[in-house]
Each structure stands twice: as C-alpha cells, then as structure tokens.
Design brief:
Elements lengths: L1 H25 L5 H7 L13 E4 L2 E8 L4 E9 L9 E7 L3 H8 L1 E6 L13 E3 L2 E4 L7 E12 L8 E13 L12 E4 L3 E4 L2 E2 L10 E6 L5 E7 L12 H11 L3 E4 L8 E3 L2 E2 L11 E7 L2
Antiparallel strand pairs: 1-2, 2-3, 3-14, 4-18, 5-16, 5-18, 6-7, 6-10, 8-9, 8-10, 11-12, 11-15, 13-14, 13-15, 16-17
C-alpha cells in the first residue's frame, strides 16, 4: 500500500511538471529577430488610434487582430481636468479587486497597479495622500501624481498677496522607486520596469507574450495613457512582450512608460465594468483610477 501511495505521488508530480511544461510552451521566449518576423509592428500598432470619449477628460481605444491573435485596450486621460475643481478625481484603494473597486467608487476608468505576493503583501512603493503604505523597491519603477498649483499675483478686491489656483494633476514616471525626488509626490504607485524612456523603447527584456498592464505619459506629464493587454486565453489573445508594449506607448504619444503587475492581475475597467473578454479570477490587492467629480 505504501508503495502504491509513493507511485501515485510520483505520477501526480510528473503530471504537474507536464502541465507546467505546457504553459511554458504556450508562451515561448523569442529573440528580437523572431518577434519582429512573427509579429511585425504593423500587426499590433495601428496607423491611427481612434479615441472614443468615455466622459470629459477620458477616452478609450480598443484593438483586435484575430490573425495574431491579439486584443488590447487603451485609455487616454487629460490630467489637467483632474483634481479639485476639475471634472475628474483621482481615487485609489487597497484590499479590493480592480472590478469591485471600480464599481464601488463609480470609476470612469480604473486599473490594477502595484505588484503583490501570494499572501497579499504589496511589493514596491504605494503612497496615498503623502502616506507611505508600502516601502519602495529600488530596482522597480513607479509613477507619481501631484496637484499642479500655480500662482497669480493680486487677489480680487485689491488684497495683496498671491492667489493659488489648481490646474489638475501632473504625473511623472521614475525608473527607480528609490529616487529621492519621488518623496515630493503625494501619490505613487509601483510597477515593474520602464519600457519607454525619453521616447525610446527599451529592448533589453525577455520577449514573451503575456497579459500586460501599464501606464505612459506625454512629455509634459499632463496626459496619462493606460494600456492593458489580454493574454490569459492565448487562443484569443497571445499577449505582448515588454518591448512591444513600449512600441504601442510610443505610437500613442508617450514619452515615458512603465509596466504594472501583469499576468493574471491585469485588468482595466471603464464606467465601473471590466472590459476584459474573460473573467479575471485573480483578486488584485490595489488599484487606482479616476471618477467624475461631484
């Protein structure tokens, strides 16, 4: 009987290894030349991004190529319309999945962000209203947000002094979460690595198709782009590599871009509803987004 139990255990373990092997085969690692040959730029970067307005300050674009196959979703957000006095409000939350968060906060747009462990512990910086919730990890990147405040001399009625008025948010992407300048940004969400820097795609990464979630910024930091690539059902969408995501960010008009937690955590919600073609079973531990200000 003991021999049979050991035999069953060995067979079970072999079956697990077989399954893991199948998963690896489904997501092969390619060289830059192989990826370029199999998936030329024109197959996943459109000539024109036809943005459709979701609400004032937020537009979306959805892409599908059944031949690759590939599905991804992008959002463009005018940060000058966000913040106190604007049409949009930055919101974030811990402990809930992105879909629940988006529905609860009535978000016009919401996305998963900082990576986390299997036990739910955040891996990397997460800062909300100046409060550091999770410590930075130097080798990983981050995006920071802060209100853009300007001054105008002379108050109404002839009073002396400066008038401070808000002009929405400015955002900045940091290659390292250990950058001391990030301390000046009251909101910060961690990611993995920068895939676009100063308008140049970074190419040093392993090229393997997978689900992706990331954010990019215009050169002035006033337009935010979100990109979420489907990849949990390879027969419907094979996913993209980091450099391919960088190419899309650059084509959309970004100057810098980084990747958030991808894989089974990748999710994008519009108007409180997930836009993914499949149900995301992995419960994310943090998200951020924008809602219409009341």
């Amino acid at each position: 009987m003991q021999f049979l139990r050991k035999l069953f255990a060995c067979l079970s373990l072999s079956f697990v290894f077989l399954l893991v092997g199948c998963v690896s085969l489904a997501r092969p690692e390619l060289s830059a030349e192989e990826e370029s040959s199999l998936y030329p730029l024109v197959s996943y970067v459109p000539e024109v991004f036809e943005w459709k307005e979701v609400c004032p300050g937020v537009s979306r674009f959805d892409f599908e190529n059944t031949e690759i196959p590939l599905i991804y979703h992008a959002v463009k957000i005018d940060l000058s319309s966000a913040g106190p006095g604007g049409t949009l409000e930055l919101v974030c939350e811990l402990g809930q999945g992105t879909a629940k968060f988006a529905a609860h906060k009535e978000c016009a747009v919401a996305v998963n962000a900082t990576p986390f462990t299997g036990s739910g512990q955040l891996v990397g910086i997460h800062k909300v209203a100046g409060e550091l919730v999770s410590q930075p990890v130097a080798r990983y990147a981050a995006i920071g947000f802060r209100e853009e405040l300007s001054t105008e001399g002379g108050r109404a009625g002839g009073d002396s002094g400066d008038v401070r008025y808000r002009r929405g948010y400015t955002a900045r992407i940091f290659t390292s979460q250990a950058d001391v300048e990030l301390e000046e940004w009251p909101y910060a969400f961690g990611g993995f690595f920068v895939v676009l820097k100063n308008g140049e795609v970074r190419t040093e990464f392993i090229r393997r198709g997978d689900s992706r979630s990331g954010a990019g910024l215009s050169a002035d930091g006033r337009t935010l782009y979100l990109l979420v690539v489907e990849g949990e059902r390879p027969s419907q969408s094979r996913g993209l590599s980091y450099p391919q995501c960088g190419e899309i960010f650059r084509a959309m008009g970004c100057y810098d871009a980084l990747e958030f937690d991808g894989g089974s955590s990748a999710e994008l919600c519009i108007n409180g509803q997930s836009v993914m073609s499949y149900h995301v079973h992995h419960v994310q531990k943090n998200s951020f987004g924008f809602k219409l200000a009341k």
